[in-house]
Amino acid sequence: MYKSEEEFLKNYNPDEFEKLSMTSDIIIFSVSDGDQKNYRKLKDKHFSVLLIKRKDYPFKDMWCLPGGFIRMDETTEEAAKRILLDETNLHDIYLEQLYTFDAIDRDPRMRIVSTSYMALIDKNSLRDKLPENASWFNILVDESDKEINITLDNGKEEIKLVIEKKLKELTTDRYKYITKHNTKLAFDHDLVIASGISRLKNKLEYTDIVFNMMPRYFSLSELQQVYEIILGKKLLDPAFRRIIANKVRKTNKVKTGGGHRPSALFEYKERDK
Fold first, then answer.
1. Which domain holds residue 222?
2. pLDDT for 217-237, tens place per residue?
């Protein structure tokens, strides 16, 4: 038994304890313009996620989220920002902590715990050039009470994920996600993506998070499109207008062209605060 803090530190041997490593993985979501099928209507919107093709083992040539090991002299958030810049050339974007993923066998190399982050950007205004092994995948989600079916498509390759949902807490409607089908995503990044989609959907209802994915000026119809593509459902116009009434302000700018009548442009009220 040690008699003082000084005695304990003097005799402390860190090698007596098992070690684990920490990583930070980042799920980057974006909404961007797609095809314009009818010149009288707005362009389609695509909800997408950025993936990296691994160059090394384990999971060589499989897709994964941007991520890496946390250094001894940085926090998890500092690591996430560094990794974003190193692996994707992206910086100064919205970033929030998502969850900690700590399954015992989530990495075949060693015991590794990952603190995941969610980042949001407006891909239409993206100026940073992505690395050759990075690609945007459009997201299509079909969710039921028991599972989530996610299809990721970059135009050349399709990734299908099936995630089982098990109710974890009845009072809070929280679920545990379990992989049922995943052959192309490394590690447990299918679960990270499913968790990120769920978090983003929930936060659309009670926060202003969506404006991190919007350009400075937008029409209300464009904003409604973004809500609908993420939520995966149509919204009634009156109900949507009530949701965003106190979040946006009308500008003196107008959007013209595209075959439809001019539309007033709005901006996020809190943008410059």
1. 209-268
2. 999 999 999 999 999 999 998
